[in-house]
């Protein structure tokens, strides 16, 4: 299941957004999720995302992971998503890896804007 929540705001003529992704993962498949996340470290920048990083469970809750990716605006995000879905691309291969191994139980995306003075 994927849920979307979109929040945006304008800063001058630019509407910058950061996508906060919350994953619920199978705690017995953390190593596979980490492999998936490591692949995105090179794929996301090539597709146009400004990847701030992926975060794995360390202490406490063992089934929640996060990612943060920034974009100039929502149009840039939409173009990035299209590039990830090009048949035969590294993005499609990584999506297929996740589907095959079923280590992601749920994924939530929240679109945030930075608070500025």
What percentage of the residues does DSSP assign to strands (E)?
Answer: 25-35%
The SSE order reads EEHEEHHE
Number of structural units classed as domains: 1
What are the segments in which pLDDT stays under 50 over at least 5 consecutive residues?
Answer: 1-13
Task: Trace the largest sheet across and list its strands.
Answer: 1-5-2-4-3
Instruction: Compute the CA-based radius of gyration.
Output: 15 Å
Report the average pLDDT across residues.
Answer: 90
- Write down the oligomeric state: single chain
CATH class: Alpha Beta
Give the helix/strand class: alpha+beta
Helix content: 25-40%
Number of strands: 5
The CATH topology name reads: Alpha-Beta Plaits
Query: How far from one another are the termini?
Result: 36 Å
Number of helices, where a helix is a run of at least 4 consecutive DSSP H or I residues: 3
Please give the CATH architecture: 2-Layer Sandwich
How is the main sheet built?
5 strands, mixed
In words, what does this structure look like?
- The structure is a single chain.
- The chain is α+β, with helices and mostly antiparallel strands and 117 residues long.
- It has a single domain, classed as Alpha-Beta Plaits (2-Layer Sandwich), CATH 3.30.70.100.
- Helix content is 35%, strand content 32%.
- The chain has three helices and five strands.
- The chain has helices spanning 30-47, 74-84, 90-101; strands spanning 2-6, 17-25, 50-55, 64-71, 104-112.
- Strands 1-5-2-4-3 form a five-stranded mixed β-sheet.
- Strand 3 and strand 4 form a beta hairpin.
- It is globular.
- It starts with a strand and ends in a 5-residue tail after the last strand.
- The model is unreliable at 1-13 (pLDDT under 50).
């Amino acid at each position: 299941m994927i849920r979307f929540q979109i929040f945006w705001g304008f800063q001058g003529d630019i509407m910058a957004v950061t996508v906060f992704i919350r994953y619920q993962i199978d705690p017995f498949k953390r190593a596979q999720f980490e492999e998936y996340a490591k692949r995105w470290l090179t794929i996301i920048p090539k597709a146009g995302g400004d990847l701030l990083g992926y975060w794995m469970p360390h202490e406490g809750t063992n089934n929640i992971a996060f990612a943060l990716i920034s974009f100039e605006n929502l149009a840039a995000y939409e173009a990035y998503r299209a590039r990830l879905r090009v048949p035969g691309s590294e993005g499609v291969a990584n999506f297929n890896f996740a589907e095959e191994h079923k280590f992601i139980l749920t994924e939530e995306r929240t679109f945030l804007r930075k608070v500025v003075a």
